[in-house]
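pasting for ref. prot 1 ->
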Amino acid sequence: MSEALLLQLEIDQLNARYAAVLDERRFDEWPDFFLPDAKYTVQARENFDRKLPLALIALESQGMMKDRVYGITQTIYHGPYYTRHVVSPALVQGENEGRIRAQAHYAVFRTRPGDASEVYNVGRYIDEIVRTPDGLKLASRLCVYDSEMVLNSLIYPI
C-alpha cells in the first residue's frame, strides 16, 4: 500500500475516532485529539470566505478545550440531545514542515429523546495535523459550517 493511501487511512481513522468520542459523549477524551497549543475554531462560512475573524467558538489551547468540557459536563443546563457525526473521507492536501493539511466534510445530526432527528450542523473540517509518538494529533481544526442559522445554541463540539 502506498504512503499516500496509508496517510489517508490514518486521517480517516482519526476522524472516525473523533466522531465516536463526541457521539458517545466521552467529552473528557476530546482534548486528547489535539496538541497542547492547538486551536479549535467553529466559524460561519460567510465569515471564513470574507476572511473575517468572528467565530462561534475559538479555543486556543488544549487547556481551553478542557475548560469547555468542564462547562459542558458540569455547569451548562440544557435539554438533552444526542448527536451523530457523519464524516467524509479526508482530502489530503499536502505536508509542509511536518504539518499535514487535510479537509473533510461533516454533517452532524441531532436527536432529542422522543423526537425526530434533524440536521444540526453541516460543513467542513480544515485541519493541520502533526504526527506524534502517540499517533496523529490536530494542531488546528477549523470547522467551517454552511448553515446561516445554528439551531438553539452550540454546546457540544462539532
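and prot 2 ->
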Amino acid sequence: MNFSTKKIWSRATNRLYTIIYTKLKERSFGQGENRVKYMLFPRKKNSNGANVLAVCFPAFAGVGAKYNYVRTLSDVNIHKLYLLDDIGGKKDLGNYLIKEGVEENVRALIQWGINEYHPEKLIFFGSSKGGYASINFALDFENVEVCIAAPQYFLADYLTCEKKFDNLCAILEGDESDEAKEKLNNRLRRKIAESSLIPKNLYIHYSKNEHTYKEHIEDMLADLKNAGVNVHEDVGVYTNHIDLVYYFPSYLKSVVSHIVNS
C-alpha cells in the first residue's frame, strides 16, 4: 500500500469512527441559537491514566461541521472534550467559537469540565480554525498547554480571501464596516498582548511553504514570543494547507504524550 492510499484509507477510517461516536455521545451545552455541541470522553477509572483534560477545537470541514482528531487520541487515557463549531455559514459552517454568546458558552463548558474533574493539566488543541480558537481560549484559563497546526490570525482578511462571507457575517453579527473588520483582524493580537493568562507552552506545526505562514503564522509567532510564551515549532515541508491533516496527528499524539508524562 503506497503512501497516498494509506492517507486515503486512514482519513476514511477516522471519518467513520467519528460519525459512529457522534451518534453515540454528542450532547449540547446551553440552549437556543448559541448552544454548543460537544462530545466528552472521560478518563477510564480502572486503568492507568492521567488526570488531564484535553479540549479539541475544530477546523473547517469543507461542507457542514465535524469533530476533529477523535480517533487520534482514542488510546490516550485522559479526559477529552471535543467541541463542534456549527453556527454561522451556509456551507462550511463555523464562527471560530467567538460569536457573542457562543464564546461564553464554550468558556462555561470548559469551566464545567475543570470543576468536574479537577485536572492537574489542561491541553487545548486544534488545527487551522481550531488553532486560532485554541489560543483564544487558552488566554482565558490558567496553566494551559497548547498544541496547534497552521492557524489563521487575521480573521477578516482570511475569511474575505476565502470567500467565507457568511461565516464572517456570523462573527461580526451584521456589522461589516471596515472598522469592525479591522477590530476582528486584531482581536487575537490584542488579547495576546493584554492577557495575564498566557499558555505555559505552545507547540505548533506548520509549513513555511504554504500560504498561511507568511499571511498569518509568522506575525502570530512573533507576538506570542514577545508576550513570553514558550513556543516549540515543528516545521513541515508541503505547499497545500490541507496537507497538515497528514502530518499533525502524529505530532499531536507525541506532544500530548509528552505533556501527560512530564
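Residues 3-261 form a domain with the Rossmann fold fold (CATH 3.40.50.1820).
The first helix runs from residue 3 to 25.
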